[in-house]
Specification:
Shape: globular
Distance between the termini: 47 Å
Number of strands: 5
Oligomer: single chain
Order of helices and strands: EHEHHEHEHEH
Structural class: alpha/beta
Length: about 160
């Protein structure tokens, strides 16, 4: 059975490898790049039949535009959330807000896959530049998890400091 699968952050690394492997297996793959320059690295996959969406996940309007573009096409069976950054001010928008927003806006992919690195095991979550120096605390969105068939086995992502 052929599935339609979006792989975010597929311009290089694990995302590109996953997209290439899924495409070789005969799946309908949608690749994603942050900008046109990074999208040029996906030309070989697009030539083999992958579809391309372009948008910077630090920009919520770009995430909304990608979701609208994807919702106008054949429904997705799965999303592999691979896009991510290591450090800096883009961590929150790219690693947390964009995957959540994109998933909430898409017409029900049956499967969601979240790729991560070991960096989430350390650090001190804080919204340093926010009003009053508020600290971030992660909460598992259990209603969203159950509606998307995720198993509630997520580790605690962050604790109040």
């Amino acid at each position: 059975m052929v599935s339609r699968i979006l792989v975010t952050g597929s311009a290089d690394g694990l995302g590109r490898a996953a997209a290439a492997s899924l495409l070789s297996a005969g799946h309908d793959v949608v690749v994603h790049a942050r900008n046109r320059e990074r999208a040029a690295g996906l030309d070989a996959l697009v030539a083999r039949g992958a579809h391309l969406v372009v948008g910077d996940f630090t920009d919520r309007d770009a995430v909304r535009r990608i979701a609208a573009e994807l919702n106008d096409a054949k429904p997705l069976d799965a999303v592999i959330h691979n896009a991510g950054v290591w450090s800096g001010p883009a961590v929150m928008p790219v690693n947390i807000i964009a995957p959540y927003l994109l998933t909430a806006l898409l017409r029900g992919p049956r499967r969601l896959v979240y790729l991560s690195s070991g960096s989430h095991f350390g650090g001190r979550p804080a919204l340093a530049g926010s009003t009053g120096g508020a600290r971030a605390r992660a909460r598992t969105p259990t209603a969203s998890c159950s509606s998307r068939r995720l198993r509630p086995r997520w580790p605690v992502c962050a604790q109040e400091c």
